Amino acid sequence: MIKLVLSDMDNTLIPFGARHVSPRTLEAIHDVTNAGVHFGPATGRDYVELMRFFHMDESCFMTGIMSNGKRVRVDGRDVWTYSIPHEWLDRIAAALKPERGMFLICYPMDTNLFNPAYVVGASEEEMNEYERLVRFTGGRVVDVPGIDFIAAAIACNGDEERRAYCQRLIAEACPEVETVMTVPNWFDVLPLGINKASALDIILDAVGATRDETVVFGDSGNDVAILGEVHYSVAVANATDEVKRVSNFRCGASAGEGVADALFEIARAARAHEVPSFLKEE
Fold first, then answer.
1. Which is nearest to 204 in space by CA: 12, 42, 93?
2. What is the pLDDT of residues 68-94, one digit of tens each?
3. Which homologous superfamily is 4-81+195-279 in?
């Protein structure tokens, strides 16, 4: 029986660029939790930022893996957090400083509903472009402020060759991190060894579930590691080829509310003590 469901957000639970999940998706989340199954996001987004995605309904994300594994919440409380060392961010910012169209974005550990982020070394025009694309409230700074940051990202305008060059710069400047492209021209900065997959054991222990009782939905690069950890790994129809290769099952596309369809079926199966139909082996 399924006890835990984790879903990526952007382009999985919610079409990229949408302001919030659909009313039907909200209904599906309530249905699955009312059936006794823990549900939560497994996302690069942080906790407070998720409020607007879920229509301010905190019951939808009381449990989850957030900020790409740097925050784990269970039943409304943090059970684990990790802040990115300030010295790493300084090195990344210094490496990007001479480059046009590349800059660092840092998200503070203590945040609020405005989703503030410090944008290091970008022009106003460059920052505004990504504010609209990724939906944060940016403030331009020259250097990384001396506060705790739970997440960071790199914006990189240009083609595939330019993005590869950006990743090489970061690898040389800060080998303690990896960069994963989650949306076009946008890399998440992930401390090596800390990601959605590394947080899985923490959340499983806290909710009393096993890997074989867990479903994970995903679509892109930062989902690959956690999808590889569970049997019930599900790629949405719009997922990358890499995600489809590592996933054992499929559901509909994000734009077609594919995860909502799957959640309704998980809820039905939980009440009937059955395996959801879309997770049965062919």
1. 42
2. 999 999 999 999 999 999 999 999 999
3. HAD superfamily/HAD-like (3.40.50.1000)
- Give me the residue label for tokens 């990358």: 240
Q: Which residue has the tokens 């879309």?
A: 278
User: If one looks up domain 86-191 in CATH, what number appears?
Assistant: 3.30.1240.10
Considering only CA atoms, which of 65, 214, 49 is closest in space to residue 73?
Answer: 65
Query: Is this structure's pTM higher than 0.90?
Result: no
